[in-house]
Amino acid sequence: MLTRTRTRIVEKPWGITNIPSAFGAFAGRRIGEIWFEDPDGCAAPLMVKFLFTSERLSIQVHPDDAVARKAGFPCGKDECWLVLDARPGAELGIGIRENSDTDRLRRAALDGSIAEMIDWRPARTGDFLYNPAGTIHAIGAGLTVVEIQQNVDCTYRLYDYGRGRELHLAAGLAAAKAGRHDDTRDSRIGADNNRELVGGPYFHLLHLSGPEARALLPEGKGRFSFVPLSAGCTAAGEAVELGECVILDDAGAIALAPRARALLCWPA
């Protein structure tokens, strides 16, 4: 069975006005995010988004399960990013360059110097980063990114470059792990790679490429989110295009043409 998700267009101050045509026509609106909303709503375990950036996003942090539940949320938020396009000089910020403490981070968030504490890394097309809950992070300008995350709307802003939006210093600093980011899942993905990117603990994620992807597909029934990254993707006999996401109960229903590529994710 194939279920098409609802597309939600989100305008952001750091978005872009020239969204690729595969995602639609938006008449010059500043689009920052495109969400694919599962018909199960808040009960769905995962959320898929595309992000388009012309400026740095806020410096922020997500809570882990324990912190999130104390705040009334059902779970924390781990997420990951695959860079689909990166302009020259684009960066991703993940973790901080040197271990710190809550008092220093609070002062740095208030005076803006936290931006210099972030571990800004050059971003290239094909970069993959896993962002565990508690990691202080930010996405830089000039990027198109697909994001897979636990489906909970809980983000704490620590610094927002004077944009005037609400900050969440107390909650964010309580959730933050004030140290470097080092995750063995971080890697670089070729367009022709068939491989597992994430194997838990909260979700699984595969990068699929061409007809050979069939060997990697999980067996049995489940709740799979299928996200094309190019033309040439079908599921349950229907074409699924870049700019769409569908929910499947059988991953074996997926077929990719030569040089087609997609992501497949499901809850752990």
Question: What distinguishing features does this structure have?
Answer:
six-stranded antiparallel beta sheet, single chain, 2 domains, seven-stranded antiparallel beta sheet, 268 residues, Jelly Rolls, 4 helices, mainly beta, 21 strands, 42% strand
Would you kindly provide a written description of the structure presented here, covering whatever features stand out?
- The strands form 5 sheets. The protein has a 7-stranded antiparallel sheet with strand order 2-3-4-11-6-9-13, with no helix packed on it. A 6-stranded antiparallel sheet has the order 1-19-16-21-15-14, with no helix packed on it.
- 41% of the residues are buried.
- It folds into 2 domains: 134 residues, Jelly Rolls (Sandwich), CATH 2.60.120; 73 residues, Jelly Rolls (Sandwich), CATH 2.60.120.
- The protein contains 4 helices and 21 strands.
- With 268 residues, the protein is mainly β.
- A hairpin with an 8-residue loop joins strand 3 and strand 4.
Which strand order do you get reading across the main beta sheet?
2-3-4-11-6-9-13
Name the shape in a single word. globular
Question: What structural category characterises the helix and strand content?
Answer: mainly beta
State the fourth-level CATH superfamily of the largest domain.
Answer: Jelly Rolls
Instruction: Tell me the number of helical segments per DSSP (H or I, 4 or more residues long).
Output: 4
User: Helix coverage percent of residues?
Assistant: 10-25%
